[in-house]
Amino acid sequence: MTLEDLIEVVRGKGGKPHIVIVIGKGGVGKTTVSIMLGDLLSRSGKTLIVSLDQAKHLVKYLSLKDTHKVTRIDGGLHAVQFDLEKESRKFTAEYSRLLKQIMPGLKVLNVEKAADTIKNSPGFEEEVYLRYLETLYSNRDFDYIVVDTPPTGVTLRILNLPRTYMFWLGNLIELRTKIASLKYSISRVMGEKAEAKDPVLDKLYELRDRYQTLMKNLVDDSRTSYVLVATPEPLPVYEVEKTVHTLQDLGASVTGIVVNRIIEDEMAKRLGVYEVQRDSIGSILNLKCKGSCIRVGIMMNRTPPDTLEKAREAARKTISLAAPLP
Ligand SMILES: Nc1ncnc2c1ncn2[C@@H]1O[C@H](COP(=O)(O)OP(=O)(O)O)[C@@H](O)[C@H]1O
Ligand SMILES: [Mg+2]
Q1: Structural domain for 288, as ranges
Q2: Tell me: the pLDDT tens digits for 167-187?
């Protein structure tokens, strides 16, 4: 199986845009593989590579000038770097507006304090990423969007968030329904004008709908493909195994696993990494995953494939993992 085979499967899935989420440990080649996949996909449709990785290697590899604007790279290929800081600011501002809107009694000082608390809450960054991911599904300017993610731990937390939210929102809606009906009854008893609509409850319903849709998209094979990347070493392989399980647990399936930077046997023996490499590839091949789960190997390049041209060149040297190494 080669990268082309993997692309073939992705192409056959449909969905506009179809989102390809690339996951792996830091340094294994996620950004490089994202460029390879984006480049190949751009031959059959307008493609955007989005890097959520704050290491911002995409900017370097593709020489993006205005990093946060969608830039056309070549043919149908486009790229953009996600700016966590900027999006976080936008997000807290949005929260402050919402707070003022649903709790008009709140003083400015309190709103600012609440916004500060939100910014420093655990899970805030993941939430910002998730919101951005949500916007990608409705970006109909592109046929394909390749998402280069932050390191595995953060990514898995992001993907788990909608499920956690659904649980919380379910409970909150129940609680708020009771509060709203009590408020309504009390107002009527007191002879005041009773407001049947509750803005907080409306907001909770709206959020629940949004996360439900997002959760559905994330596990829908026709909207989303997951490509996992590892180097032939124990830790990156372990992270791939963990990711396969987490994704399957969520109800999503893995479309491809790429083992990147494979060293030729002779060289691997000389470097004393032959056994480790062989065992790591063996673990990837033995991994049980539902769906097509295409496994591709990419050889270690003599020079880092840190430009589009070089990445293209390196992408041609993909190998089938089941066959003996060259
Ligand atoms: N097939 C390869 N051969 C040689 N070097 C590679 C290969 N793939 C990636 N690299 C290099 O490995 C380093 C990490 O790659 P990168 O794509 O930035 O990883 P990540 O996005 O996972 O952190 C970079 O210096 C990159 O040029
Ligand atoms: Mg990267």
Answers
A1: 3-88+122-320
A2: 999 999 999 999 988 988 888
